[in-house]
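Re: Re: token formats

Sure, here are both.
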Amino acid sequence: MTEKMTSRRRMLTAMRLGIPDRVPVSPDISNMIPARLTGKPFWEIYVYDNPGLGEAYMDAVRHYGMDGWFLYGSVLGGNKAFQLVRSDVEFLFYGNISVPKDLIKRKIISKDDDKMIERWTVKTPLGAIEQSTAYFRFAPPWDLTNFIKNIAEDWPKVRWLMGEDWHWDNTLIDHALIGNDEAVYGLQVHSFVDFWDGIRNGTSEQMIYDFYDESDMMHEIWSYFLEFTKSRTRGLCQAGVDEILMQGSNSSMSLINPKIYREYILPVNREISKICRSENVICHLHTCGKSREVIEMNCEGEPLFDVIEPLEKPPGGNVDIGEIKRKYGKKCALKGNLLTSGNLVMGKPEDVEREVIETLRAAGEGGGFILSTGDQTGGNTPDENLFAMVETGKKYGVYTPDGKLKAFLR
């Protein structure tokens, strides 16, 4: 009989293409579900850390009895010129850098029963940059404006904050929240598209226009970003993370094209993959939406990632998980792919149970698989359906020592 594993060990075994005691069950409940379960307005979590999102996430993991995937910590670091201590730091640009609080002014500029808007003003010797974010009572935050409004004027200010010489601490912030190995502790680096989309003012269309209208400037920024991201990845690995997640939510073929991907994203993926392998740290890719071509580009020859997710199926994506398992399942672990807009939110528990069984039959055999969702689970997903997903995954996902699913043996 296979020894029962902790959630962390179970997840790491699957991520390494091994055969755990059972298929890990880890729906993507990254934001809306944990915030909803607190019973508080979402701005309490996102603005006031009451509780912090990481704490709320781990409470949700225990609530559903699922295997945890913790992405809510950080490592102090970035511009070596800043002397940083945890109590005096704000994290900017998706947590990529740590900035002294005395450079930042945060102000609530409007609030009503359903929404509040906060403006961040960051001082630099080259002038200030500003961003505004809307926080909602029952929805995650949404950026209204971003820091870079004029590339020529504002990028030098952002670059000054990010620095030219970098240092990274070796303390994993909030590592204690994962308890007794209840979750994998991962930290994120971002694709260049996701990074730029997150700091560029305007819609995602503006970000795409920049690649064509400002190509010389974008290549210059990309070159800097590549070196920064390599340094940060190395620092995170050396701090002792379980995995590095390449965050590519905006890097699917739902938004960009293969030319942009090959020019701006794939070279960064190659460098991050090299660093993770040299440090023996799992390298994990997240790209929701239409990701079939993304999977193929990253699996040409030696695969760049140990884990690829969330393998979204139609209508939002274009992945057949059984086909991807047959084609790439011996090269990299797969994580996915229950439809978040289908049975989970609109069906009954028995519908969810049926979809879980179909997914396990398609991709669960042989290990190297994590049962998850095809993207973040919506906040209106019924609790009974999430419980059905977790319980069915546990029931039908038990392995024999040679990687067969016991429930499906004849």
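Second one below.
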Amino acid sequence: MTRTKAAFIPPSTIEISVLVPVMNEAGNIRPLIEEISAVLTGRRFEIIYVDDASTDDSPAELASCAADIPELRVLRHQTRAGQSAAIRSALLAARGELIGVLDGDGQNVPADLPALEAALLAETGKTGATGMAAGIRARRQDSAMRLLASRGARWIRRSLLADTHPDSGCGIKVLHRSLFLQLPFFNHMHRFMPSLVRRHGGVVIGVAVAHRPRLRGTSKYRILDRLVVGISDVIGVIWLLRRAPRQGEVTEVMAGKKTAQKAVRKVAKKTAKKASKKASNKASNKGVGA
């Protein structure tokens, strides 16, 4: 798919940024980019791929795609840092109000992005809240061993973190950029997004999504590694969630000279009212003593 260069889109007008971390995914890159692009045609969007120090033909494939697809931006880690770090790099570069995230292996289906976005906006648009619409894979196309490992990890998260989302490991999601930037960053944090979002006051909406078998390449995770690392990560997240401050709602009380003057008058009035009430109580107490 070759497209002519589009007009420059100012950062402030980008509606959604789609982030895709990849490491040695040659052969999966162009088909997925073209799918994302087709799904978002007519929208103001950007696609940000982060190459996590690939050693295959991924860099060349990304360069070829960038020449054809104007909405594509490519970042590269010189040293391998992991999936969460790649997502974080893309997030810090993103300019959209909304953030979409997909795995780079082609198993997530980009056609599900609009449904996730619609569910998020329908839920949060009523209250002005922020949140995340997270995919729930209806029929996972993975090996029996991988499914078993995922069930074990899900049981651990549910038992120790009270994570009620049925598919926290699903890679496809849409969330508000402002909320995503508030979440603590650590290695493997992408596996705990529902718990982290809720802890920071966001809403989590589950949406049924499709899932495809991997057609090219191999998974970067080994089953035993996933279980061992998963347990240690859960312990760290428990500590993190307990240590995070609960500050409640934050409201702006002063902005500009007029607003500040109004706030000062309001505080002065409140203080005078308290002083008057205190004086009245004193006088009343004296009268009782007499």
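The domain at 11-243 is CATH 3.90.550.10 (Spore Coat Polysaccharide Biosynthesis Protein SpsA; Chain A). Confidence is low (pLDDT under 50) at residues 1-8.
- S.
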